[in-house]
Amino acid sequence: MAxxxxxxxxxxxxxxxxxxxxxVELTRAQLERIDRLEERIKSFITLTPELALRQAEQxxxxxxxxxxxxxxxxxxxxxxxxxxxxxxxxxxxxxLEDYVPVYNATVAERLLSQGAVLLGKGNMDxxxxxxxxxxxxxxxxxxxxxxxxxxxxxxxxxxAAVSAGQxxxxxxxxxxxxxxxxxxxxxxxxxxxxxxxxSRYGLVAYASSLDQIGPITQDVTDCALVLNAIVxxxxxxxxxxxxxVADYAAGLxxxxxxxxxxxxxxHGGPVRLGVPEEYFVxxxxxxxxxxxxxxxxxxxxxxxxxxxxxxxxxxxxLACYYIIAPSECSANLARYDGVKYxxxxxxxxxxxxxxxxxxxxxxxxxxxxxxxxGAYALSAGYYDxxxxxxxxxxxxxxxDFDRVFEQVDALVTPTSPVVAFRLGEKINDPVEMYLIxxxxxxxxxxxxxxxxxxxxxxxxxxxxxxxxGPHLSEQRLLNIAYAYEQATQWHLERPNI
Amino acid sequence: MPLERAQVEQIAxxxxxxxxxxxxxxxxxxxxxxxxxxxxxxxLDTTDVPPTGHAVDLQAVMREDEDEASLAPEDVLSNAxxxxxxxxxxxxxxxx
Lengths: 497, 96
Prior knowledge:
The structure holds 2 protein chains of 2 kinds. The mean pLDDT of chain A is 96.
């Protein structure tokens, strides 16, 4: 097959099953495309072509033996914060530049055991801290729609790779929007599942009460297929939910009529969608607002009932997030002491000095900023004013969502208030950069699932619509997104690269 | 309330990160701006509001105490910057 051809998981799966192509052919074509584009996009920290071809050969044997699943033989990229046994896992940090895990993350184990083909590890903001991928210690990733612009972050490598056709799909992680926001900025689908749906075992920790792994895909069907493969209880993650898992892809089939959203709402009747006014913030670009409003009208034309709702605590979400996440980060990153793994400064006799210099040399500016901010918020005398206050705000934000989900089935919002911005535009101003996360952090704070789907263009750049639902409403969100996708063509748009 | 230079130095010490004078100055400025933004939370009446540490209600999770294989010592040590035999080698913790 030609390197120009773009296939989704479900298209490639069908061709593999019918022996129109082999996984080795698919993987070779994918590697050729990476080769052609990578100098411009820079979405991979590590490429694993030999491993990929070996896995592709094994996948072809499984397919021949009739033992294939939906992801068998499909080439993918994994964010470099997910541990892969024997494959360097850097977290885009100098600290872990040479770190080779001796075990697989549960998600990696699940995908590989289902015959996934690993093309390599995706670029990201260092330790998943950032919204532009510019905080990678190695190099920034470029947005395939405009190489002078960022792909978003922190899973910028994954979103750029899927958008540019360098991988059929990718796995990212989302602590404050790090799957949904880059998906939005690159014109692909990204989902953060309910907290606890996907095991965090082997995901290098940033903010443990917020972190969740999620798929980045070309369409909603693919998102459901990847979700199927990664959800489920894991005894190795004590926060993992003991929830029976559904076949999300099979669930999509329910919507076939011209007004698929006219029934299936929780209160009987149409699907009820709430539009929270607080998410249309000051500073939101007009083009984003217009695209999302047009998408909401499309959802209405598909039979949904749309009503304005209010989430008054939204204005506190960013402060809440930027206290809680750095606090947890300062505790989680205490492990990088230069003793067990990672960069280690040795040129001193004194243990404390060695540790201080190890961390000074291993961490980049954004990581230092968050560790120090978190240590401050947790320190004696400031704990009540910052950390405790933020945790109380977290309760109020949750209650706000609980209240509104008694009224509506899901919320529809923009994913990001802006389209992809220029490299360097915001990197020196953390306050400005953090504002980008205003629409995505509330779902993490409340542990809710959220999905971003392409819903138009502004200034020639993709706009994303976010759909947020109550805990464990993944199927509902996918169905709404799928109905929208069936009625529109945005997900078929590809960057000209 | 802007952060004092000495406060940034003190937190950096607690976080065990040595900062250059330029970094201290930069963080003093940036963190002060962020703390200013956080003041928005003071608008919230949080009297009698319990804190949320986790968005999903979880009990302490226990499992049966069964023995199972763990990582081999050579695997555990495979990324160690310095090792000696089956041990991580560290600098002296206690002074003579």
